[in-house]
Amino acid sequence: MPWVPRGLAEGIVTTRYPRRPDGYGDGFHGTIVASPAQPVDAAGSLPAEVGEAARACPTGAITLEPGRPRLDRGRCILCGRCTQLAPATFRFDPSFETATVLRRGLVVPPLDEDDAVLDAARAELRHRVRALRRSVHVRHVDAGSDGSEEWEVAALTNPVYDVHRLGVFFTASPKHADLLLVTGAGSAAMLPSLRHTYDVMPHPKAVIAAGVDAVSGGLVGSTYATRGGVGEVVPVDVVVPGSPPSPFGLLYAILLGIGLLGAPTKRREEGGAAHRPASAEDPPPEAGR
Amino acid sequence: MTGNPPFAVCPADDLASAVAGRVEKGARFCGLFARPDGSGLRLMAVVSCHGTLAAEEAILPPGQRRYRSLTPEIPAAGWYERELHDLFGIEPEGHPRLDPLVLPRGPGTEAPCPGSGRTVAPIEPDLRPLPAHVRGEGVFTIPYGPVRSGVFESVEYLVETTGEDIPHLRTRVFYKHRGLQARAVGLDTGDGALLAERMEGVASVAHAIAYATAVERVAGVAVPEAAQLVRVVHAELERIANHLDTMVRHTEGAGQAVAYACLSHHKERVQRLRAQLCGSRFGRGVVVPGGVAGPLRLDADRFRESLRTLAQAIDKDTRRLMGTPSFVDRLRGTGVLSHDDARRFAVVGPVGRASGLDEDVRLSRPYSAYGHLGHRPTAPVEGGDALARQTVRLAEIGGSFHLVRQAVDLLDGRSGPEVWRAPVEGASGPGLGWAETPQGETLVLVELVEGRLVRWHDRSAGFQNLAAFAAAFPKDILTDFAFIEASFGISVAGVAS
Fold it and tell me: Total domain count for chain B?
């Protein structure tokens, strides 16, 4: 039986995340960070290159406000055009802890008034799913994805991410499911099935919109056949940016969705995505360790 | 660089016989496309013969919606005519079964006609069930999907069965239709590449290459050599990842837990290597019309070292897998697609090659740097079963590593500042592009007016192959389903687009 020794010979390849920080090295395009731009005059006008970057954005994710540009990660497909046109303002960052609890939380840098709203939403979610913490079953539904999202979701069961160690399992039946993980831009023909899946899931339940397609439609947007994301059909609790989101990004979102992360804390730097590295939170129990 | 194929124009009702004549002489049917022309419609049938493409065009004048169907003579045209019926509302007379394919419009709903300049309101799909195909005592229909059991793309298979055998199977892909052909209209060539990457996300690089070559043909520019090599590197790594993915699904289906862990780990390593080269695990943003965004972002020596260890590890584990009888027995004799059926449906890619069709557009119509690189000869595979498809993919993984290594060496040996892209802005006209995606040949029609897309239609390999999917079932039972599906390696996103 050659497979057993083969499996043992590999040693442990599984990430320690979220107990220990992990991820990709420099150069991985996890997200884009927008820094405050130096205004060119007293009225707070932004440098011309920032305006150019906003116009070049294929999904219109950049808005210009006096003194600063804001980037909507719920639309950003990480094409990197803005990082080329205005490198002083926009840059790629390897961070993947970018999921959050409200659509408006994806717009960075965050507004001060958003903090309280986000904290309240996070607290409500934690309270609602408090019974799930140690065993969570996830039902995935594709509502018009490009196919890459499914690869990244499926990667969560490979030995590197191995979500089983965290008590997270994918289930075939929505009646066993606690979390609904939705991908895709909301293709009209899938929406009735998506809603039906959500309806038959038992309480308590939470919904994750995984990837910009599910959050806003992404580059596909609203066509005659898509509805610009899935938010109109199911109540979304966690929004995950990325096109597609990386497996680490999805793992972070699942932990957020089951209330294991995201106690209110002080905001961290301009990205404002992760309030604190996941490792600093109460770590979930890891079976067998 | 070859130019566009000569477009021969004939009356709409003669299109079927014109194309059938070419197919009888040995040409392979590659696709049927439509592009609005004024208020009429041009139908373009593309065939491939001895390494060149040829197109037959027919004009449907304004008001004419009917033409003689190609499908009775060319079964491979069946799905194309259903798609054109859904999207343009034209009626192929004599089509054997004109069920909706990508867009089930209810009665009275107007067709979206992408490229006609019309704005289309949201369309509510008509989701009523279809009447059964097979009738008889004890025959019933099992719908699989659209929500699948597990992490899969949405699709519905209607299995008409008496209990174990699968005498008939229908595939309904429209659940994932996103209206991409309409979305593309008005985009500039750069944004078009981003959309092409999202047409079939697991083959982002190859679709972007096919799209870019079409734009480059319209613009009449040559892609810088170094950029062509970079394209090959990314496209071949994408092929390795996709072929590993089908094997991961096979091992999962066969309950080979350790093999599943090993192979899915290898796939993850390939994805991470791709991210090291460009920042994206799917090679997104690499291909731009005219060239590539920039060089490989990994030092050549480190890259070669990664390739070496990865190729060795994959080779060892796949040999072990093919020596595991409980695995191989699940694939042997499962889902046989006969040579005749494969030819009838003009099946492409590894699925076609496992049924004795010898077509790989990297060799027959070389693009990017494929014409200058040495290809590892592959032994012909016969049998047409899931095992044959697996064997073909295994050989291709080795071939892909071979191509990547050559491209890296050539890039490493170049000196001096490189030009990574040629200007394509402002081009006008129609053009065809192609690429060998991991799933087989993809064919892209673009039409530009002053650098903006007025028409974009990317026909994925899956679209061509899924029509033949039902032909692989007659000898199999329900428990074989997962293996046959995985061995076809089809991404529904690209089929329904």
Answer: 2
Q: B324 and A185: CB-CB below 8 Å?
A: no
Q: Can you give the length of chain B in residues?
A: 497
DSSP B4-39: PPPEEEEEGGGHHHHHHHHHHTTPEEEEEEEEEETT
Q: Are residues B218 and B321 in the same domain?
A: yes
Nearest CA in chain B to A81: B285
Please state, in angstroms and rounded to a whole number, the distance separating the CA atoms of residues B283 and B275. 7
Three-state secondary structure along A206-228?
EEEEECHHHHHCCCCCCCCCECC
Burial of residue A47 (number of CB atoms within 10 Å: 0-12, 13-18, 19+): middle
* Residue B344, both tokens: 């009838």
Q: Which residue has the tokens 């008590």?
A: A167
C-alpha distance from residue B357 to each of A78, B135, B239, B283, B467 (Å): 39, 34, 19, 29, 16
CB contact under 8 A, A223 and B178: yes
Name which of A25, A140, A192 is nearest B127 (Cβ-Cβ).
A192
Contact A90, A32 (CB under 8 A): yes
**Domain presence at residue B133:** no
pLDDT at A19: 85
Contact A223 B201 (CB under 8 A): no
A186 with A229: CB under 8 angstroms? yes
Cis peptide before B36 (omega within 30 of 0): no
Q: Pick from A147, A184, A244: which is nearest to B200 by CB?
A: A147
Contacts of B216 (CB under 8 A, 6+ apart): B1, B222, B223, B289, B290, B422, B424, B433
Q: Which two tokens stand for residue B422?
A: 């040629």
Q: What is the ipTM of this complex?
A: 0.95
CA distance B146 to B320: 35
In a domain, B383, yes or no: yes
Out of B146, B281, B297, name the one closest to residue A193 (CB).
Answer: B146
d(CA A219, CA B426): 23
**CATH code of the domain containing B337:** 1.10.645.10
pLDDT at B462 over 90: yes
The reply to whether residue B178 touches residue A7, judged by beta carbons under 8 angstroms, is no
User: Cβ of A224 and B320 within 8 Å?
Assistant: no
> Which residues have a Cβ under 8 Å from the Cβ of B458 and sit 6 or more positions away?
B180, B196, B199, B200, B207, B210, B211, B442, B443, B444, B494, B497
Q: How many CB pairs under 8 A join A and B?
A: 185
User: Of B61, B82, B117, which marks where a domain is finished?
Assistant: B117
Query: CB–CB of A80 and B317 under 8 A?
Result: no
Can you give the residue range of the structural domain that contains B209? 185-462
**Would you say residue B134 has pLDDT above 70?**
no
Q: Is residue B334 included in any domain, yes or no?
A: yes
**pLDDT tens, position by position, B84-109:** 999 999 999 999 989 899 999 988 88
CB-CB neighbors (< 8 A) of A80 in chain B: 279, 285, 293
- B53 strand-pairing partners: B48
pLDDT at residue A207, rounded to an integer: 97
**What SS3 state is found at B41?**
strand
Considering only the beta carbons, identify the residue of A142, A159, A221 that sits closest to B154: A142
**Cβ proximity of A219 and A184 under 8 Å:** no
Average pLDDT, whole number, for chain A? 87
- Interface contact B113, partner A, CB < 8 A: no
Domain with residue B58: its CATH number is 3.30.460.80
The verdict on residue B207 lying in a domain is yes
Residues B199 and B79 placed together within one structural domain of the fold: no
Residues 457-496 of B with CB under 8 A from A: 491-494, 496
